[in-house]
Amino acid sequence: MRPACSACGLAFEREPGYFIGAIYINYGLTVTLAFAGYFALDAWRGWPTGWQLALWCPFVVLFPLWAFRYSRALWLALDQLIDPRDGRRGVP
């Protein structure tokens, strides 16, 4: 990941551990989709638990790997919305 935005100069990582919030977003999205998918397939198709586990276990491993860049972008957007900073100077 680049250290700053090439268009506006906003520093992406403001401090060590800054993207822990992105991990929480990614985890919450993964769990929500897996639980909703499990119960939806159970109600709609009536699949046994073994089949469901065979489907959702790979999902909960692969989906966060794919979605992490998007959760980082969402975390940056939320942080910039709540605490806007001028990234070129690095000051609020």
Write the SSE topology.
Layout: H1 20-44, H2 49-82
Structure in words:
This protein is mainly alpha-helical and 92 residues long. It is 64% helix and 0% strand. It has 2 helices and no strands. It has helices spanning 20-44, 49-82. The chain starts with 19 loop residues before the first helix and ends in a 10-residue tail after the last helix.
> How many helical elements?
2
Total strands: 0
What radius of gyration results from the CA coordinates?
18 Å
Overall pLDDT score? 87
**What percentage of amino acids are in beta strands?**
under 5%
Report the major sheet. none
> In whole angstroms, how far apart are the ends?
23 Å
Shape: elongated
Helix content: 55-70%
